[in-house]
Design goal:
about 625 residues, alpha/beta, 21 helices, about 35% helix, globular, disordered C terminus
Length: about 625
């Protein structure tokens, strides 16, 4: 136990106050983190998993957190440390199994269920808290309107500002209910750019009215829901600050908009200060000082080698009168307010952490939500859902996680399956082998990952798009499942891929419950319920029918559902399922003949109402 009350800022030295604003990066359960806290009195650490080797166990993480907190509380002015992590779900999860893998933001938005967003965020928070984490740098409140966005994409709830606002608010509520601080990011909005702020400075060209209509609503909703922190984006928005200064260093954006107009008085956290988007054109030593002068409070992940000089620069600026001490004190008070729940909190228990993480109840909650996140993008011939029965099936995909495990899941239900791994950018010989195998199959299932981002040039062949085109030309029924980003439709037989740099595949936005591969989860989520069917379109016949892994459990089809065909002319008889993505039909199917008509459970999605388990049930180990 420690003193349950935050200290009076007046008891703190200038050096202690400046150090409290820094959160340094650690890789793995590094024992040096406790020494950093003991030596400098830094405000906290942000955890990244080891790049190789055995992942840290929950017990090891709890012991690591305990060591960090003991070091923080042994200082002359004892102040608990924040221990943060980027555990968004989907492609950004720093903590692998046994931590429960979560659907990403766009997956949750595809289900349109704020209850799912809230409940799963609470599960994430409880698991984080059990391992000693105190802050999650989530949710992502960006509205992703650029399909070539290389850094946000499925991390966003989609392109609908109203839906993104509802989902972001729900996740804030869930994280806070689970006991960790929520952090909405990346203000003022990172969704409309094709530049990754890790490697350069994006420039957002929206006018002020468009920014208020598109980017602002999710941040306003997150603030209204009580988000503890807002993270800045390293991006220039001339409509908000004509100087082109990155938002992280912009007084008009951080103080003028976020503080004064939106009334946010929580902690403003910079995005990582070791990113090129903020370092290019600025001196490392002065970047934290400039961020403070703009209105930031927490200085996240500076280059470790630059941190001592940055700390000294802030202290020197206060002593020289460049930075008023009361400005520094205001940030320290916000940091202490952020940490208020940690004062007097019990120490982490490694044994309890092991028992509380990855529980059956948590996995079941994810499984139920996951099944509601698949979008039917195009189905010209009313091919889906697939009818049950023994069939010969070819499964292709970029890697073993999306081929072998998916093939096993289909084989378990009576099909004869051939799995052909093509690699992330299939070469002509691999495509030829897949085409040869397809000619002897009753059904082809092609899983794609970042298909629209892999284009000719920049060292890529556009192989996934060529593979889908070649498979469609065989005349066999083809179902394409986009397992990562909703760009498959733009990489379909008659549509060119978007102009974006090749991006290596990472993780499906729909994470696998119970530790199963993302491919199997996607296939099971793809057809548990009937998709609404064009009213007057007969079901096509195939030489031996087709198989669906969940066919035996499917309720009867609705016979007169509205026409939900999207992009049928461009897709040319290829059925496309986008797993766990929202608004794929609107944002990535440019050239679709018409938007889908609303179905009984919402536009463009097939799902059924489900009973929500009591919130308290998810709290049980």
């Amino acid at each position: 136990m420690n003193d349950p009350q935050p200290p009076d800022v007046r008891r703190m030295t200038l050096e202690d106050k400046a150090a409290q604003l820094f959160v340094l990066r650690v890789t793995g359960a590094d024992p040096d983190a406790a020494e950093l806290v003991a030596r400098y009195g830094i405000g906290g650490v942000i955890y990244f998993a080891p790049r190789s080797g055995t992942p840290d166990t929950p017990a090891a993480l709890a012991e690591f957190a305990g060591a960090v907190q003991r070091a923080a509380l042994a200082r002359p002015v004892p102040i608990p440390a924040t221990i943060g992590v980027d555990q968004e779900g989907g492609p950004v999860e720093r903590l692998p199994p046994p931590f429960t893998e979560m659907p990403g933001a766009m997956a949750l938005a595809a289900g349109r269920d704020t209850g799912d967003a809230r409940d799963l965020a609470a599960v994430t928070a409880r698991e984080l808290r059990a391992a000693g984490f105190t802050q999650n740098y989530a949710p992502d409140a960006d509205v992703n309107t650029d399909p070539a966005n290389p850094v946000i994409g499925v991390r966003s709830f989609g392109a609908d500002p109203a839906l993104a606002a509802r989902m972001a608010a729900a996740q804030v509520e869930g994280l806070r209910a689970g006991g960790v601080a929520a952090t909405a990011k990346h203000f003022p909005g990172h969704g409309d750019t094709s530049v990754d702020s890790h490697t350069g400075l994006p420039v957002i060209t929206r006018d002020r009215a468009a920014w208020e209509r598109v980017d602002l609503p999710p941040f306003a909703a997150a603030i209204a829901a009580g988000t503890d922190a807002v993270m800045t984006g390293h991006l220039a928005v001339p409509a908000l600050d004509p100087t082109g200064t990155p938002a992280t260093l912009s007084h008009p954006i951080l103080t003028g908009l976020l503080r004064h107009r939106l009334g946010f008085d929580g902690a403003i956290v910079t995005d990582a200060l070791d990113m090129r988007g903020i370092r290019d054109g600025h001196d490392d030593e002065r970047i934290p000082l400039l961020a403070l002068k703009a209105g930031a409070d927490v200085l996240l992940s500076p280059p470790n080698e630059a941190f001592p000089a940055q700390l000294a620069a802030i202290v020197r600026a206060v002593r020289d009168g460049e930075l008023p001490e009361d400005r520094l004190d205001a940030s320290v008070r916000r940091v202490l307010r952020l940490k208020r729940p940690l004062f007097g909190a019990p120490a982490t228990d490694p044994d309890a952490a092991e028992a509380a993480i990855g529980t059956p109840a948590h996995r079941d909650a994810v499984r139920a939500a996951t099944e509601r996140t698949t979008t039917l993008v195009a189905d010209r011939d009313a091919f889906l859902p697939l009818a049950p029965g023994p069939r010969t099936v070819l499964v292709t995909g970029p890697g073993p996680a999306t081929t072998r495990t998916l093939a096993d899941a289909i084989a378990e239900r009576g099909a004869t399956v051939n799995a052909h791994e093509t690699g992330p950018d299939p070469a002509p010989d691999s495509i030829a082998q897949a085409v040869s195998a397809a000619r002897g199959a009753d059904l082809v299932i092609a899983a794609t990952s970042h298909a629209g981002a892999l284009r000719p040039g920049d060292g890529a062949r556009g192989g996934q798009a060529e593979l889908v085109k070649a498979l469609a030309a065989t005349g066999r029924p083809v179902v394409v499942i986009a397992v990562r980003a909703p760009t498959t439709s733009r990489a379909s037989p008659t549509r060119p891929a978007p102009t974006s740099p090749p991006t290596p595949p990472r993780r499906s936005p729909c994470a696998p419950p119970s530790g199963r591969s993302s491919a199997r989860t996607i296939h099971e989520a793809a057809c548990p319920f009937p998709f609404p069917r064009p009213a007057a379109t007969p079901r096509p016949s195939t030489p031996s029918g087709t198989a669906c892994p969940t066919g035996a459990d499917r309720p009867p089809s609705r016979s007169a559902a509205p026409d939900r065909r999207v992009g049928a002319r461009a897709l040319d008889a290829v059925s496309v399922l986008v797993n766990g993505t929202h608004n794929a039909h609107r944002n990535w199917c440019d050239g679709a003949e018409a938007p889908p008509a609303p179905g009984p459970y919402g536009r463009g999605h097939a799902r059924r109402p489900r009973p929500r388990p009591p919130h308290r049930d998810l709290q049980r180990p």
